[in-house]
Amino acid sequence: MNELYQSQRAMRAMRNIAMQRGIIAVLDVGTSKVACLILRFDRPSDLGSAETLGSLAGQSSFRVIGASTTRSRGIRFGEIESMAETERTIRTALQAAQKMASVRVDHVIACFSGAAPRSYGVFGEAQIENEVVHAQDIGRVLAECDLPDFGENRAVLHAQPVNFTLDGRPWMPDPRGHSGDKLSADLHILTVHDRAIRNLNHCITKCDVELAGIASSSYVAAQSALVEDEQELGAACIDIGGGTTGVSIFFKKHLIFADSIRLGGDHVTGDISMGLQIPMAAAERIKTLYGGAMATGIDDREMIETQGNSGDWEHDRRKVSRSELIGIIRPRMEEILEDARDRLDAAGFDNLSGQQIVLTGGASQIPGLDGLAARILGQHVRLGRPIRVQGLPQAATGPAFAGVVGLALNAANPQDEWWDFEVPQPTIVGRPLRRAVRWFRDNW
Q1: φ, ψ for residue 63, nearest 5 deg
Q2: What is 142-182 written as a DSSP string?
Q3: Quick check: 316 pLDDT over 80?
Q4: Is residue 343 helix, strand or coil?
Q5: Closest CA to 27 of 151, 131, 112
Q6: Rounded CA gap, 180 and 189, in Å?
Q7: Which residues have CB under 8 Å from 108's CB, separation 6+?
Q8: Is the sign of the CA dihedral 154, 155, 158, 159 positive or negative?
Q9: In Å, how far from its chain's centre is CA 186?
Q10: Is residue 97 classed as helix, strand or coil in its secondary structure?
């Protein structure tokens, strides 16, 4: 844990250096595409010391000066399978964005999906030494959190204080300077397979840039797709990507649960390819142009030409009805949404005061998906697009870019994490803890 703590602090220091220089790149490494944005900050950020709460540090306004998207290679289920192919893909995206921006970047913040994320909610408390809360007291409280046994080959990706309570007064965003006797903290921890972080770091450093931060795609996609009231009252974001579907829950503007499903839009394309016996490229085109999740009477009369390339003219020029296509797409989308519902139920999402569900990601653009999701999830469902940021190209404003836009927002205004404080060596215990939202319900 101490090694991870130091490496995360080192990455945060590099991020601060890049912010002070005014140029940084953000990279969303997905299964179907790699998206890169280069950000220029309009003014230096008053980043403060490592003991400054990230959410209260000086915020920076920025504009996008470079953007690129390239097809992913060597990535499956959100994880790197071929190091060489992934390195070439990342290098291509970085070079194209730098060429557009006419600058060179030295630091990159990246996000990824997959790697079997797991959420934990932990609690710690300590007595205040001098009657007034100082940064050292916050560090001691975080050190008192009983950490579960994460298991072998697991790494902490996020460790965020989501609530401070001082002498029974909860929901204090920054308790420093307040008088009191006992301070407690609720901490949300998200772990992933450590190999995913090591492999991504290796590929990025081989591209002659330094990794200045790393995040979960589920986390950053929700930051850009959920509006402020949804993050405050409680909402879930279902980010349907190419190879994985991320599920995240926000409450009081903090991530309190995240998980991943090893299904996505590429599986829908595969179903179409097998069902219609056409190549994957043709199946992707048909899905994009004619796909849908809810059939109507008119769909029986709308015919689609498959346009295969097998060499058999009659086979390649077959026509299928749109209702037949929807009949292939809908079962897979139902499976994805049902798995997402199971994750939300296990987390105790029904116990939150706000129960808005937002769909984002490239595969969320299938027509009729919001209606199908409302039937399966039984909640208020809307389609989410990323928040507009200055300089963002029109082509990058769709739901497929929620992750990279959210990463840009997070780079400009990061939430405070465990490693932003001087924390004594924590105590690790061997008992598993309750999942995040259930723990919220029991404590508050």
Answers
A1: -135, 150
A2: HHTS-B----TTEEEEEEEEEEEEETTB---S--TT-B-SE
A3: no
A4: helix
A5: 112
A6: 26
A7: 24, 25, 26, 27, 94, 204, 209, 210, 211, 212
A8: positive
A9: 21
A10: helix
Please spell the DSSP secondary structure of 29-66, one letter per residue. Answer: E-SSEEEEEEEEESS------TTS-GGGSPP--EEEEE
Q: Residues with Cβ < 8 Å from 443, sequence gap 6 or more? A: 123, 186
Between CA 289 and CA 285 the distance in angstroms is: 6
426 vs 5, 156, 309, 390, CA distance in Å? 10, 13, 60, 41
HSE of 48, CA atoms in CB hemisphere, 13 A: 17
Q: Is 169 exposed, middle or buried (0-12, 13-18, 19+ CB in 10 A)?
A: exposed
Asked which of 52-56, 308-312, 314-318 is least confident by mean pLDDT, the reply is 52-56
- 3-state class (DSSP) for residue 238: strand
Name the one residue in this structure whose structure tokens are 């909860």. 170
Give φ, ψ of 214 to 5 degrees. -145, 145
What is the torsion angle, in degrees rounded to the nearest 10, for the CA atoms of residue 32, residue 38, residue 44 and residue 46? 10
pLDDT at 54 over 60: no
Instruction: Note whether 137 and 118 are within 8 A (CB).
Output: no
pLDDT tens digits along 202-213: 999 999 999 999
Distance in angstroms (rounded) separating the CA atoms of residues 341 and 243: 18
Is it the case that residue 134 has pLDDT exceeding 90? no
CB neighbour burial string for 89-112, b if at least 16 within 10 angstroms, e if fewer: bbbbbbebbbebbeeebebbbbbb
Structure tokens at 235: 């909402």
CA–CA distances in Å: residue 278 to residues 80, 240, 315, 330? 27, 24, 9, 18
Identify the band that residue 383 occupies on the pLDDT scale cut at 50, 70 and 90.
very high
Rg (CA), the chain: 23
CA 284, chain centre distance (Å): 24
Domains and CATH numbers, the chain: 118-191+422-435 (3.30.1490)
Alpha-carbon distance of 46 to 358, in angstroms, equals: 33
Beta-carbon count within 10 A of 162 CB: 20
Whether 147 has a pLDDT exceeding 80, the answer reads yes
Q: Note the pLDDT tens digit of each residue in 261-306.
A: 999 999 999 999 999 988 899 999 999 999 999 988 898 889 998 8
277: left (phi over 0), alpha (psi -120 to 50) or beta: left
Whether pLDDT at 170 is above 50: yes
